[in-house]
Design goal:
Elements lengths: L48 H30 L5 E2 L2 H9 L3 E6 L4 E6 L4 E5 L7 H9 L3 E4 L6 H33 L10 E3 L12 H15 L1 H6 L7 E5 L6 H12 L3 E5 L10 H16 L2 E6 L2 H4 L10 H16 L6 E7 L17 E4 L5 H11 L11 H6 L6 H17 L7 H13 L10 H20 L6 E5 L9 E4 L10 H22 L7 H16 L17 E4 L2 E4 L5 H28 L1 H14 L1 E3 H10 L11
Parallel strand pairs: 1-4, 2-5, 7-10, 7-11, 8-9, 9-10
Antiparallel strand pairs: 2-3, 3-4, 6-8, 12-13, 12-16, 14-15
Helix pairs in contact: 1-4, 5-7, 8-10, 11-13, 13-14, 15-16, 15-19, 15-20, 16-17, 16-18, 17-18, 19-20
Bound molecules: adenosine-5'-diphosphate and zinc ion.
Length: 656
């Protein structure tokens, strides 16, 4: 479909606050960065090209001047009346005619001199003739013999000196320029790069939807920043550092900015990775600068995003990293060193708290920790509401339904979703966003862009339809499985088809029954292929992998198998080999065998269960597959209808 391949350049980006890029790990934020051509990648640490530019320009001008000067000296130096070239015989005859005032003979027989009329000349004694005759001849002709021997050409010598001097100067300035360049990138040179951006945000808590608990926890910081003197007078130590823990995109930066906005204090933000450079000492110098700058504008907030880039456990990795350790030490000493009454609060964000050096978490440093989790359903609703403020929604749009359909979405994902929905509407030539736009935007974000080039062959379509129908029917038939929301055989992302299930409510705890039902649903796709086609296919690989992962956790972590009994092996403590995280197995080879066998048994049973269900409801399975081939995408309710038409009464579990 041609509209899928349209670039999104012309699409509006109503949410300019959406932070483009700058995030390291974590899952990609879908289209958040997408209306891409306008996005300019920025080096971490802010606009560094700016401080780097002025020395560049100054040295550039100097170099040009030098080259010009060199040129001028060369040209005008030699534009003094050029010496006349005389043959040796002409020279001798001129000398005997008394027309030569003086001459200099070099050891190689080169002659330079001046005639009586002021004209300079050069000549050469032929190598065949000796020079001793010449000297006698000159004395006879009364020619002033000014120098003999080395035959120093003073003009040439001077010229050489000047050239050398200029070359040396050029070289000097080139190296200066190079070091200025290094300075611009690494802060080593005289010019130190600016690492932080100082701003006075206008963001307030009204821009941060949900997270009431987090807001309450940070309320005291705002109080402190507004009136640090009050704390000082009472002899109280204000908060110094707060660590915000949470997955990417959950609004940690937004919160930090809102705290600064609420307290109306300057906000200095840096990214941890901007500190870690290849030059030892740069990071530490930057940390120092950061705090110097903050002190100048205090009370202020310093925000360090991705603090794990500097704050990793010292000596923990196999490769020691002096630079990072120096930077971390500097950060620690700055945090210890500042007077709490100065009114500087350091906020830091990370999604990998486990790698942080414990020293960072000690009292007086980041001694308070605030968890910023993925938003709950009602928070998702609130975030969607915030990001739909300036958009026109059709009356039929139910943001609560959208929130329900987006478990696991972060705030950034939701901001992105609202934006993508608006783009979908624009693409359809509408100014008003319909419910379907949200559906499509969600599919895009979840599954990546639909790949129109991957058109399925007719028999492939049928196989995919059978596979998806298998998932759908098993899910519809098992009361403990989440109900089916949508079934599709449209290729989306990596998947050839999708069966979506929506939980009725957000779960934090899953019963064994629930997990076993989920396994049967996952294996239902492959079971259907075998029931209908008599053989499996490669299409089930992802299902098998995720089912195996779940079954393994059931056996190893949740104690949900009779073979292993009530054991819960954690996945072991992660170790770092360079950047790779390696998890060590914490049990024996023999135990591993038991685990493997238990996992296989659980999976076999789940597949048998799915197969039995599908065999008993074969008519419904065939009917649904047919319907899918025809319609490509159907609602969950259509699955129930097909089953009802085939004579089955569905037992639905209650809403709790
Ligand atoms: P983090 O720093 O945790 O990675 P950000 O603060 O950069 O996440 O969040 C990215 C964007 O997601 C924000 O700019 C905002 O548009 C949106 N967002 C995240 N959480 C919320 C929220 N609670 N309310 C409103 N918007 C949010
Ligand atoms: Zn499947």
């Amino acid at each position: 479909m041609s509209d899928e391949s349209q670039p999104e350049q012309g699409a509006p980006r109503p949410d300019s606050r959406l932070k483009a890029g700058g995030k390291l790990p974590g899952r990609p934020r879908g289209g958040g960065d997408q209306p891409g051509p306008s996005r300019t990648p920025q080096a971490p640490g802010g606009p560094r090209s700016v401080p780097g530019r002025s020395p560049w320009r100054a040295t550039g001008i100097l170099v040009v001047l030098l080259i010009l000067g060199w040129f001028v000296v060369g040209v005008f130096g030699s534009s003094a009346p050029a010496p006349r070239q005389l043959s040796y015989t002409t020279f001798l005859s001129q000398a005997s005619a008394g027309k030569v005032r003086s001459v200099t003979i070099s050891s190689s027989g080169g002659l330079t001199g001046t005639l009586k009329d002021g004209q300079t000349f050069t000549s050469q004694v032929p190598t065949a003739l000796g020079q001793s005759d010449l000297v006698a001849q000159m004395q006879k002709d009364h020619v002033g013999l000014t120098a003999t021997g080395s035959g120093t050409d003073w003009a040439a010598l001077l010229w050489t000196f000047v050239s050398l001097g200029l070359l040396g100067g050029l070289f000097f300035f080139m190296t200066r320029r190079a070091s200025a360049q290094v300075g611009a990138f690494g802060g080593v040179g005289k010019v130190r790069a600016k690492v932080s951006d100082t701003e006075r945000p206008t963001t307030t808590f009204a821009d941060v939807a949900g997270y009431e608990g987090v807001k309450r926890e940070v309320a005291e910081i705002i109080e402190f920043l507004r009136t640090p003197e009050r704390y000082r007078r009472a002899g109280a130590v204000g908060p110094r550092g707060i660590l915000m823990l949470g997955p990417p995109g959950t609004g940690k930066t937004l919160l930090a900015r809102a705290i600064a906005g609420e307290a109306s204090v300057p906000f200095l933000s840096v990214t941890g990775s901007a500190f870690v450079e290849m030059f030892v000492g740069v990071g530490a110098a930057r940390v120092r600068d950061l705090f110097v700058n903050a002190r100048k504008v205090a009370p202020a907030i310093i925000f360090i995003d991705e603090v794990d880039a500097i704050g990793q456990r010292r000596g923990g990795s196999m490769v020691s990293n002096d630079e990072r350790e120096q930077t971390l030490n500097q950060l620690l000493s700055e945090m210890d060193g500042f007077d709490p009454a100065e009114g500087i609060v350091v906020l830091a964000a990370t999604n990998r708290p486990e790698v942080l050096d414990p020293a960072l978490l000690r009292p007086g440093r980041f001694d308070r920790q605030v968890v910023v989790p993925l938003p709950t359903r009602s928070e998702r609703h609130a975030i969607l509401t915030v990001h739909s403020r300036d958009k026109h929604l059709a009356p039929g749009v139910d943001l609560d339904a959208v929130a329900r359909a987006t478990p696991g979405f972060s705030g950034a994902d939701l901001a992105n979703l609202a934006n993508e929905a608006a783009i979908c509407a624009v693409r359809a030539g509408r100014a008003i966003i319909e419910a379907d736009d949200f559906g499509e935007a969600r599919d895009r974000i979840l599954l990546g862009h639909r790949d129109a080039s991957r058109v399925l062959l007719a028999d492939e379509r049928h196989s995919v339809a059978v596979h998806e129908s298998g998932h759908a029917i098993v899910a519809a038939l098992l009361p403990d499985a989440d109900p089916v929301a949508k079934v599709s055989i449209l290729p989306a992302g990596q998947a050839l088809g999708v069966t979506e299930q929506l939980p009725l409510d957000e779960r934090h705890l899953f019963s064994e029954r629930h997990l076993l039902a989920a396994l049967a649903v996952r294996l239902g796709g492959r079971a259907a292929e075998i029931v209908v086609n008599g053989e499996g296919s490669t299409g089930a690989a992802d299902d098998l992998a995720s089912a195996t992962q779940l079954a393994t956790r059931m056996v190893r972590e949740f104690g949900l198998s009779p073979e292993m009994g009530p054991v819960g092996y954690t996945t072991g403590s992660p170790m770092y080999l360079g950047k790779e995280e390696v998890t060590m197995r914490t049990y024996s080879e023999a135990t591993q065998r038991v685990v493997d066998e238990a996992v296989q048994r659980i999976l076999r049973e789940a597949e048998d269960r799915a197969t039995r269900l599908l065999q008993t409801h074969r008519a419904a399975l065939d009917k649904l597959a047919e319907l899918l081939v025809e319609k490509e995408t159907i609602d969950g309710s259509a699955v129930d209808e097909v089953l009802a038409a085939a004579g089955h009464r569905l037992v639905r579990r209650g809403a709790a």
